[in-house]
Automatic annotation (TrEMBL):
Function: Catalyzes the condensation of 2 ATP molecules into cyclic di-AMP (c-di-AMP), a second messenger used to regulate differing processes in different bacteria.
Domain DAC: 78-243
Protein name listed in UniProt: Diadenylate cyclase
HAMAP family assigned to the protein according to its UniProt record, in alphabetical order: DacA
Pfam families in the record: CdaA_N, DAC
InterPro entries the record matches: C-di-AMP_synthase, CdaA, CdaA_N, DisA, DNA_integrity_DisA_N_sf, DNA_integrity_scan_DisA_N
Gene that produces this protein: cdaA
């Protein structure tokens, strides 16, 4: 009797492979790749014991551990699961489908909306004033906004520069821009523990990477040491940007 392999089997294997791949990426970004590898090894041993060797006593112990382990994993990796769901919900195709159902239309950022931010970053870069600016897109950043001081002001170059001035009480935190307005400043961002981040990049870059991994926001960093302008977006760094590159990246369709 030959094994029948149909289109459903192919889709099934493809979906499982994609699930494992995205889980691997998520664990790697959060620094939990060794835990992920340990879980895969445990599942492999469980399958060998129960399905191949058919050891009933040891198999029942492993079955119990698997049942309890699912709950333990949900508790242990609640942040990673939340990040995965946020990433899934903020995906461009899923967001487009959601907007189709609720009738809302995405308000894209244009040249005039983003130029005050670009000019402020260039000015702060020349003066080597450190800054961290987060631009919200589809995924809401209400929890981040609550960690800072609410401003709710129009996006203005001088205001941005004044907030990040070295003696300003809000210069150490992040600024959040939402719906073409400066929503809050002095906000606290989640710090990425990704081991692949270059050692020369500081805490601002790690915080920018953290929010970019948890949402679809653009996070702009102005380095206090070099004055260089960088952007973290969807878990990737864009380093040493000039004015044209920064504007193009920020106005790019999400």
């Amino acid at each position: 009797m030959f094994f029948e392999f149909g289109i459903k089997d192919f889709i099934d294997i493809l979906l499982v492979a994609l699930l494992l791949y995205y889980t691997y990426k998520l664990m790697k970004a959060s620094g939990s790749i060794k835990v992920f590898t340990g879980i895969l090894v445990f599942i492999l041993i469980w399958l060998v014991v129960t399905q191949v060797l058919e050891m009933k006593l040891l198999g029942s112990i492993f079955d119990t551990l698997m049942n309890v382990g699912v709950i333990a994993l949900i508790v242990l990796f609640q942040d990673e699961i939340r990040r995965f769901l946020l990433t899934l919900g903020s995906h461009r195709h899923v967001s487009a489908l959601a907007r189709l159902f609720n009738g809302s239309k995405k308000e894209a950022l244009k040249h005039d909306d983003i130029m005050p931010v670009v000019m402020a970053c260039l000015s702060m870069g020349k003066q080597k004033v450190g800054a961290l600016i987060v631009i919200e897109h589809n995924a809401p950043l209400d929890e981040i906004v609550r960690t800072g001081e609410v401003i709710d002001a129009a996006v203005n170059q001088r205001l941005i520069e004044n907030i990040f001035f070295k003696n300003s009480p809000l210069h150490d935190g992040a600024m959040v821009i939402s719906k073409k307005r400066i929503k809050a400043a002095g906000c606290i961002l989640p710090v990425s523990h990704d081991l692949n981040i270059p050692k020369e990049l500081g805490l601002r870059h790690r915080a920018a990477m953290g929010i970019s991994q948890q949402s679809d926001a653009h996070a702009i960093i102005v380095s206090e040491e070099t004055g260089g302008i960088s952007v973290a977006y969807r878990g990737q760094f864009y380093l040493r940007l000039n004015a044209e590159e920064l504007e193009s990246l920020l106005t790019k369709e999400n």
